Amino acid sequence: MQLKTKLSILACSLLAASSLSAEDYVSVQFVQYDESDDRASVSSPSIEFSKDFGVDYNLKLGLVADSISGGSPTWFDTTSGASAYSRGEDIHMDDVAYGNVEYDDNRVAGSALFTTRFASRDELAIGVNFSTENDYRARELSAEYLYYLGSSKNQSLSLGLSYQANEVQVECIENEACDANSGASQTMDVDVISAELGFTQILNQDSLAKVSFFYISEDGYLSNPYMNVVRSYNPNSSIVDVVAENKPDKRTAYGATAQYIVAITDTISSNSTYRFYDDDWDIMSHTISSELYYELGKSWILGAGLRYYTQSEAEFYRAGFFGDETYASSDERMRDFDAWGYKVNADYKILPSLSMNVGLNFYDQQDTFNATYYNIGLKYSF
After folding, report:
1. For 10-54, what is each residue's pLDDT tens digit?
2. Is 259 within 8 Å of 210 (Cβ atoms)?
3. pLDDT, tens digit, for every residue of 301-329?
4. 288, 28 contact by CB (below 8 A)
5. Which of 23, 157, 177, 217 has minimal CB crowding within 10 Å?
6. Which residues share a beta bridge with 104?
7. Buried b (16+ CB within 10 A) or exposed e, 34-49
8. Which conformational region is residue 7 in: left (phi greater than 0), alpha (psi within -120 to 50 degrees), or beta?
9. Res 235: pLDDT
10. What does the H/E/C string look like for 277-332?
11. Closest alpha carbon to 71 in 226, 201, 202
């Protein structure tokens, strides 16, 4: 039955099991994301190619191109216009406003993942990723090893490591040696090291569970070059400064994830996840999500999902004015908030080798904004 097959595929995907039948495919997707209040709008077409070479090797290649536009909320000097770089000193507070500043950007990202299966059917996956924008470049190298704890392959351990080398172009203020393309005065580096250790257990023919623990270390320019703060050094004065935000240049995070997948009946399955996150910026978050899938006949799989997210506030966040604090940010992503996500999706098998998927998602962040995004795609297996 397709549902049991779907559960098996989910399980084997988590375990990277060698028992998966070979499937070569090309998948094309389009995602449209729009936020309320004229904030971000993203159009994102992508393509993915997967090819098995015998039973021991697999290569996946991906390419995505994003077109991004809209407005980002920050403080700015109204006398200089609504720009992220409308900054200055000795500004009257009546000339300071908080609102959206417009931006446009394009991003191209690519990925490659090569998986090797050994005689024991343990697996090693090596990946490379890159991403480039007008003012940001990211390169990543990753590796994951899957180790089975017995011949039954009902239990496995996985260890994943990744390293990112990122570059941020920061706008020049009083520097004539500007980058000709971005207008930036200098290139700032951001290094990110991530590690994750996971354990997966197939509980029975209908269910499995996975737990994992992760660690993330960021080092470098972690501020947003487009975010400003207002500093008021004299509470009795109406004169303030509008300056770039300043976040710490180091961040260490850790957390855990628990996942449970089960075939409830012959036609219904569910995938539930809990994630805990904590870092040394005083941000702690909890994420709970659950997805339900229903097999309708031989051609349709319908899905629906619910997600809840909550986080605490960073120690250096403030919506209002700052004084002479070293670290200061009014970035709304650093505040405490709750958010709900809702999704519905459908997969339809047009032909044995051709399927179509559509999805609609709604995101609602408490007292801030909401977003709607949809995806549509085709997958051809050969």
Report:
1. 443 343 333 344 589 999 999 999 999 889 999 999 999 999 999
2. yes
3. 999 999 999 999 999 999 999 999 999 99
4. no
5. 177
6. 69
7. bbeeebbbbebebebe
8. alpha
9. 87
10. EEECCCCEEEEEEEEEEEEECCCEEEEEEEEEEEECCCCCECCCCECCCCCEECCH
11. 226
Strand ordering across the sheet containing 239-244: 88-92, 239-244, 228-231
Type of residue found at 51: K
pLDDT in tens, 57-104: 999 999 999 999 998 899 999 988 767 778 889 999 999 999 988 889
SS3 content of the chain, % helix, strand, coil (to 5): 5, 65, 30
2-139+202-381 sits in which CATH class?
mainly beta
Contact 164, 183 (CB under 8 A): no
The Cα 222–Cα 188 span in angstroms is 9
Classify residue 175 as exposed, middle or buried by CB count within 10 Å of its CB (0-12, 13-18, 19+). exposed
